[in-house]
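Hi,

I'm pasting everything inline rather than attaching a file, because the server keeps stripping attachments. The sequence lines come first, and each chain or strand is labelled.
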Amino acid sequence: MKPSPRQLVDGLLAGDRAALARAITLAESSLPRHKELAEEVLERCLPHAGGATRLGITGVPGVGKSTFVDALGVHLVRDREETVAVLAVDPSSPVHGGSILGDKTRMPRLASDPRAFIRPSPSGGSLGGVARATRQAILLCEAAGYRNILVETVGVGQSEVAVADMTDCFLLLMLPGAGDELQGVKRGIMELVDLVIINKADGGNVDRAARARRDYESALHLFPPAPHGWAPVVSVCSAQEGRGVREAWEIVLRHRAHMQASGWLLRRRAGQARRWLFELIEGHLREAFLQSASVRDRMPEVEALVETGALSPLRAARQLLEAWNPAGKR
Amino acid sequence: MKPSPRQLVDGLLAGDRAALARAITLAESSLPRHKELAEEVLERCLPHAGGATRLGITGVPGVGKSTFVDALGVHLVRDREETVAVLAVDPSSPVHGGSILGDKTRMPRLASDPRAFIRPSPSGGSLGGVARATRQAILLCEAAGYRNILVETVGVGQSEVAVADMTDCFLLLMLPGAGDELQGVKRGIMELVDLVIINKADGGNVDRAARARRDYESALHLFPPAPHGWAPVVSVCSAQEGRGVREAWEIVLRHRAHMQASGWLLRRRAGQARRWLFELIEGHLREAFLQSASVRDRMPEVEALVETGALSPLRAARQLLEAWNPAGKR
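And the predicted assembly:
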């Protein structure tokens, strides 16, 4: 028998990992019935959520994200004796068959620790759907008592923006000598970043990493200061050898202290809640529209006409909206 | 006195640049009154649109996009004696104050040619709004007789996806030696690309560019073949010195011939029209919702509650949707 939302929440709040996993699965489902259950579970969890340090982590494939997350997670659970949940947003994973973010086998040390909870990216669906599920998973993990949440994402399109918009601090992993100064770094992403870590600063790379650090530091000076007054910090590490990981986390904590003292942590989260509200509204509107009988009946024909060019998308949109809403309720 | 939509269209179809510019300005406006006029203008232009070769161009800042577009445009208007319109999608431009895509002063040779029409990115608003306006501008330029449309975008987040979704062929500009193989290239973007051009293959860079070309060629082999059967082509050029530009355009034409012969050009445009339809619907729904009296009245209070955490976004969304639609029309 399936547990009721209440039972699920009781288990989750008591730290039952199976209950947490099941609640996240509900949040990932696109079935209307599951969505309602997921919302009920989440509502009950919300009073217990919000307490974690939420860190977003991005970087191009090959930068060593999994190794870094593994090393950082191990530092948190072993040296600091804290709990950590690892989540991921990777809308490309199911289609492209690349490495799966949040794959436990790529974080062997962390995966075996009882203080860590690792969950791969929800698969399938749009970025919007994947991001919505992960946003809910953060809150569920917090309610389950996880004190630190790491959300990793791959450097693909808009997913970094989505992850920066659900975390308190955003970390960009880079390689030493991967290019001159900001070469290869997207302008729009740089302005989301609170912390740049140059990974793989080991072996013959140590000098290049130090040079890259200086380059990034001077490049970052070119960006206008953020309203919250935190200037992005650049540091180096070797996740493979475990060096620089403690220092990276100390910067995260310094960032957190700055954001808390200045009131910007609350403001950042308030803005995130507001944008989440609008995302939810848009999702509901789209669904209500597409699932209404009048639209469902006409859509196949309209789509076909639009695809052949016999009907312009502009006119088609107007026609469908009128069919949906004949009384002209605007 | 302002011209009627009909007068505007008559001027535009006759090749009047002021009429074209005014029609694009209408398409960029967010005023409901302008939107209606813009739709009427566009509907009248649609029968005359669709004939151009639409090329999307992306690449990180510093790769020489403006120089390349200038050189390619000059090749089109002088060597080929064809017309060209240059448009841009850069949602970041107004906020970040960087260089403006489509700025005429950065394309000095092309800007002075009567066969070229250059229009900077619409400023302000979301990526959705900027993309919608540019999509309409493409059609207006086609109706005005421009045979080639170049749409440039900067390598920021989702804007590349948007531009690939409004063009027939998508070109990625790269630098020689900017990194090993695919380092710095986002996986998600690589799968949109039909053509990679390594720019700045001049001076001491010639060998590095040749090496980069081989590297990219072997890296591109790692991607699964696209359903249309076109494998991305890698070429080198020096936009500064004008070398390789003709060759780049020949690849664009080869790509076009392949897509036409295989029927994939029509399929690509059909998919674009369908996605445009859904974007329009979502925009209309959002607006109808936000502008309805019942939502407008409650929104400020609800937003405030959500921002302080007193009301969850989930519950807030449900409440607003119910307020909008009390009869439960789903």
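Chain A touches chain B through 67 residues (CB under 8 Å).

If the labels don't parse on your end, tell me and I'll reformat.
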